[in-house]
Design a protein that fits this description.
Helix content is 56%, strand content 8%. It is built from 24 helices and 14 strands. It has helices at residues 4-16, 30-57, 62-83, 89-100, 105-117, 121-131, 139-161, 171-191, 197-212, 223-235, 247-255, 264-270, 278-281, 285-302, 308-322, 324-335, 353-364, 398-414, 446-452, 463-470, 474-486, 523-549, 576-590, 597-609; strands spanning 342-344, 378-380, 421-422, 428-432, 441-445, 460-462, 490-493, 499-502, 512-514, 556-560, 563-567, 574-575, 613-615, 622-625. The radius of gyration is 36 Å and the shape is elongated.
Amino acid sequence: MIDQGLVKRVVDSFVSLGFDDTDPHKACFDVYREHFEAPFIDATERYYTLESESFLASNNTISDYLKKAEQRLREEEDRVDRYLNSRTRKPLIAKCEHVLIRRHAQVMWDSFQGLLESDMEEDLQRMSGLLARIPEGLEPLRKRFEEHVKKSGCAAIEKLVGGQASGALDPKAYVDALLEVHEKNSETVIRSFRGEAGFVASLDNACREFVNRNAATGSTNARGPELLATHADLLLRKNNKLAKEDDLEVALDRVVGFIPYFTPFIFFCYLFLAKMILFKYIEDKDVFEKDYTSRFSKRLIHGVSASEESEASMISKLKEVCGFEYTNKLQRMFTGERSPLFLFQYTETFEDMDLSKDLTDAFKEQNHDDIDISFSIMVLGTSFWPLTPPTHDFIIPSEILTTSDRFQTYYERKYSGRKLTWLWNHSKNELWTNYTNQRYTLMTSAYQMGVLVLYNKSETWRFAEIKEATGLDGEVLSQVLGSLVRAKVLICDNDSGGQYDLNLNFRSGKIRVNLNLPLPIREAEISDASIKLDEERNHVIQNITYRYVSFSRKLNFLADDDVACRIMKYRKRLKTQALVQEVISQICQNQKFAPKISEIKKAIEKLLEKELIERVDGERHTFAFVL
């Protein structure tokens, strides 16, 4: 124990001994600095150098050293407040940080991984707080943390996949595994690193990597967005267990929305940082858009959405991340804005349900008293509904042919100039059995209905006969017949050359039997979708590349392959590297997909071939717009 008041008066006397010749009333610190501050700081350096080295050499843990260093820094701060001049604070603390932190930074960096794996939050917080005091002290931690998160995410998915094919992977389990890794490390960032921006960026970089490239995605980035879209589809369906609970909104937030577990402290620390979860990390957002739009259309068509509120909420969340253009089609499909070109189904739904009912009722009022089937119609605009007509002809069964022909005539007379294309591959129907003791209602697709009504004429049909009678493609017909055989509505006798008999002893525990299960996606359809997506991407890259090579104050429009390109009056010269970076930046801003440099260079070559841009003579790797 010392007399602190006496020490303070002695220290102050060094200041009093200073004298400014120009101003006698002005304090001069020359004597204080030379005879007290400099020796004091040198003594402090020697003391803590010896103490820290001795402490670490005595087999103390890194946790003990972190506490010791933190304690010593607090003591020096307190010492300045108690009996040193305030001017000493900055050089003294800087010297202590150099001795206690800078000289032993490597030991801290090397110990970081062990603390991270052991979830030692207090020690991580103490270490990051100490290293933040020195320049670049946190950078090695950020890199190690990013690598740790990346490995954790990949390991979680690898464990989940195991030996199974990625096609058999449960979307919910996949999403939950990704979210678990993200949320665990997100809490580490907030609690242990106090939401420091560099660690947030490291977390985002790591998540972006393992979300897009893991054991489930394989060599293609498309699998991840598809699994996420499938999971969102399952959440938004009626049969989802969360459909009637508030948990549905939370579940959607976990996929596309905000982190749901904020405490007030965490909220204020993290308020202005990026908080979107899995969706924001998806690089190929155009793949998610196509898959989600397709599933969204089927939910609307078949009326299986959990609720309109949840659908609207999902669209709102996607819009918040990617903007109006990304969700424009979804919004138009959902609100029922009409641009009719497609008509589909003789049973069910209309793009705008109120208009559907009005149109169906108006048609039935046209003195069609001989119509003995119940039906409704849905008209969909080609511009934003992702539905494609079948590639093969379907021979409409006579049981519904009269009704469909009458409606087509009625509609074309009502809306002159509009062409209707029937999408039988998306229709659904209900048939009643008259040959069983118990009358069953069979819920079928149009193709299944086309096959089953044949058995009104005969109880036995061969494959070739059914194919000729329905007009269905052989592969599609095989899938349709397979579903009916598995449901035991038909009996297949392969020994008789592909003969299909009606099962007169059909029994079911349910009165309403759903036979309309989704058909497997054909390899040709997957290939066509992939090719179409690549073409759309190349078109976007070429368009943006051309736009950046050419611009001025006045905007004009040049039609090139039916794409409006903004052009300028005056030339703009750009080097290859600058052009590539501008294109990447522009596409990433649109948040559609991450373009490959090779694809951009191909787009540049294509523009050169079309003579829309040219190489600048005498300047290597430089392009200019051709006026």
